[in-house]
Amino acid sequence: MEKTIATFECEVVKRKFELVGQSITANYPQSFPDAAIKVHMDFKKGVDEIRNCKNKQIFISPYMCNDIIATYFACVEVDELRDIPEGMIGFELPLMDYAKISCSNKTIDQGYSTLFAWIGENGYKQKWYDRSFPIEIYYLKENVEEEKVEILIPIQ
């Protein structure tokens, strides 16, 4: 197992994504993290149907959330948006600046609080609209309790 899964180092990265996946919409916050876990488990069963997937062990999870409901996605990155399996959705997130932190599935709350503090301390503001989503990236490993997670928050 990796020695340092959660480095808690913050940085700005520029990324775009082409994604294929599934989503779930549920009451927020009471249905989370259970709803997120459910969509990940359901998606894992069908990920092999995605033919042009870059890496089936990296789940990319954009989400939209307010104080009432959240829509949470389980996706993989693809080479291009084609041959999208039935029951799945394909979409592109345009090139954007993100504040990024590396943590783990066990330290995700600490990751969020550290990243939002860093965003404020460095004069950035979270970007709320214009085709932007906060994103969680999961680096899946078999038979481990703790996996690497990166959190990306769109910034301006």
Automatic annotation (TrEMBL):
Pfam families: Cass2
Gene3D superfamilies assigned: Regulatory factor, effector binding domain
AraC effector-binding domain segment(s): 8-156
InterPro entries on file: AraC_E-bd, Cass2, Reg_factor_effector_dom_sf
Residues in coiled coil: none
SUPFAM superfamilies: Probable bacterial effector-binding domain
Name the record gives this protein: AraC effector-binding domain-containing protein
Organism: Lederbergia ruris
